[in-house]
Amino acid sequence: MINAAEVIRSETSILFVTLDSLRYDVARAALHAGQTPNLAKILPGGVWEERRTPGTFTLPAHIAFFSGFLPKLPQPVQPPRLWECRPPAFKTVDAGTFVFDAPNLLIGLAQHGYRTVCIGGVTYFSRETPLGSVLPDMFHEDHWRPEFCSPEVDSTRHQVDHALIVANEHRDRPLFLFVNVSATHVPHGRYVGRSEDSWQSQAAALAYADEHLGRLIRTLTSARPWLVVMCADHGDAFGEDGYHGRGIAHPTVLNVPFAAMLTEPAATLAEHDPRPRQRFEA
């Protein structure tokens, strides 16, 4: 288990990546087919966890995430949460959970000296509309450009390039770096040479993003420890049971991949037993 309370007390930086619209079955199939070799090296045990999202489309899912409600395991008994808003007095919280006395995680982390930065992807992070400003307004700073969005075929490369610039600018302070990967959001049919979207084209989009996500995590974790959390905000239906899209309570939308790991820099790992923590290979 990850002691998030200790992680934040020690001012360890946090990378939180949401793979927009990525279904659990697609992520698992791409992994087993060898389409995501960089993620295979990064994921604890080389596998994704199957979890259930608290929201069926981008806005409610991220509001829940930033309020302390990450995707849950598909079982009655849940492990302690990584972070949680201060609860009522009658509730007991695990000692390893980071409890923030604030209305959301971003304000809570800021109270502990973190700089919170958003690298937007889909248009809920674009500020193109009032609703598209709700999530960016939660951060100290937010970054979005059209080339970060899913219609751009090389969106993840642009996002990762910018994320690494921002991380370097804040290398001397604890950072909460959030990246919403848009490549796995429709439209992604072009990754398999088609105009329509499918689970096959979403897998191909994830395979494209894999190289850049691997580069992002390897670069960030090469010099200092990071807590890395990756998950989808929701899935997408591609005709199963007659359903299409998101915002619906269907298993293809509710079931999402999840992973959380605590890293150490390569130099530290060379001196200590690496087994308690996840090691990233180049």
Give the tally of β-strands.
11
Gyration radius over CA: 18 Å
SS content category: alpha/beta
In whole angstroms, the N-to-C terminal distance is 25 Å
Please estimate the helix content.
25-40%
Integer count of domains: 1
The proportion of strand residues reads 15-25%
Could you give the topology of this structure?
Blueprint: H1 4-9, E1 13-19, H2 24-32, H3 37-42, E2 49-52, H4 58-66, E3 83-85, E4 98-100, H5 105-110, E5 115-119, E6 141-143, H6 155-169, E7 175-181, H7 199-221, E8 226-231, E9 237-238, E10 244-245, H8 251-254, E11 255-262, H9 266-271
Helix pairs in contact: 2-7, 6-7
Description:
The chain is an alpha/beta fold. It has a single domain, classed as Alkaline Phosphatase, subunit A, CATH 3.40.720.10. It is 30% helix and 18% strand. The protein is built from nine helices and eleven strands. It is globular. The C terminus is likely disordered.
Summary, kept brief:
With 282 residues, this protein is an alpha/beta fold.
What are the key terms here?
Alkaline Phosphatase, subunit A, single chain, 282 residues, 9 helices, two-stranded parallel sheet, alpha/beta, 7-stranded mixed β-sheet
